[in-house]
Amino acid sequence: MNLGLEVLLKGSNMLRLLQGLWVALKISLIAVAISIPIGLVLGILMTFHSRVLHVILQIYLQIVRIMPQLVLLFIVYFGTTRLFGINLTGEVSAVIVFVFWGAAEMMDLVRGAVSSIPKHQYESAGALGMTKKQTYQYVILPQAVRRLVPLSINLVTRMVKTTSLITMIGVVEVLKVAQQIIEANRMSSPNAAFGIYLVVFILYFLACWPISLVARHLEKKWAVN
Amino acid sequence: MSEPILTISHLVKSYDGKTNVLNDISFDVKEGEVIVIVGPSGCGKSTLLRCINALEPIQGGQIRLRHEMITQHSSNIYKIRQQIGMVFQSYELFPHRTVLDNILLAPMKVQKRSREEVTAEAMELLSRVGLKDLADRYPRQLSGGQKQRAAIVRALCMHPEIMLFDEVTAALDPEMVREVLEVMLNLADQGKTMLIVTHEMEFARAAADRIIFLDGGGIVEEAAPDEFFSHPKTERAEKFLRTFTFERKKKIAGGKTKNEE
Q1: Residue B249 domain-assigned (yes or no)
Q2: pLDDT value at position A190?
């Protein structure tokens, strides 16, 4: 059966697909790099016993959980222009939304990891004369990070996959390029939709699989008890 | 003898503000003294130790380490805690660090001592408790008794003036209890000041200079070990000690049915 793969060899089609993949990866990597530190700080704040802080952060988390990412993208991309007259590019809007989303997810992961450390660990550190800061720095956070890394790597792969939505706000990433290629060759290779989407599937797989492998490796290496 | 290391006067502890878990507790601990606290479950023994290390806020009275008041709000509470070593029932080693790194952490980061000096001391102490070869293991690779001995060394390396032991053998299999108790007996012989909460009565009798019997949140009896175990003065102490001995009401060999004495 003809999958229309020959289309890939026309012009610079394969290169354009890879460039599209790079756009998707770039946006998710930038978003990850920004949301991890923010999420860490917010997550630690969430473990403190402040009622006000807790309520505010919970509302934030719930908004992120309830809103489809596509709606968030539309709000930021179109909303900022309508409301403030700021003209954000699709890529910048995407990074903003992904950070807004990623920081919230990261925050919840950090909260879960930190609060899974038993109370006695704080006490035995305290009994050795460690200050609150030393307790977090040497005892609590190193253990929390070990529980956190595999989970946050999964978040990264989810982000990479979710970048397929940003084609809806006009960013030309791998899926958009695929559609363009298919459209341009609709007459000469009507089957190209199969082949091209198959290649897109493989590209996503190649991008996410190594990340998952790293997560699994770290999970095994750092398994505690 | 000199003045006491630890002075507890009229200590009151309550979790809910209504019922007192500890009610008007007063006693002194002198240098080199080994005090064993015994009593039924829920009598407040562990709470007492936790208060002494300011792990729990107290509602009345005073706890003093020499001249320093111990409260959770003392500005120098971190300094005071360095002078009080504590060993917990559930060991509470740090699972992400090896035995040696568990021991080194506080002396290096809190007391700012050099790695070489603390390592030398740690290895010396580890070999004394028979763990020299396990220094590079992680806690999960150790048995309960080994973990508890490592935890004792970790506390000792801070050079505390007094050691608190909170039912340190309660979670151990019977055959591991002894190796931990031996370590504690050795410490007692070396003149360490210790406050021990335990359910091991034979050990209490052997190790203690003084027994404190706690019941219902108060000190019911305070006596030398032989006196306490052979001739308890109060009925409550007698009743408590009876829970450690067993008797059958009927025995076939005797032929006759005998009632409880």
Answers
A1: no
A2: 79
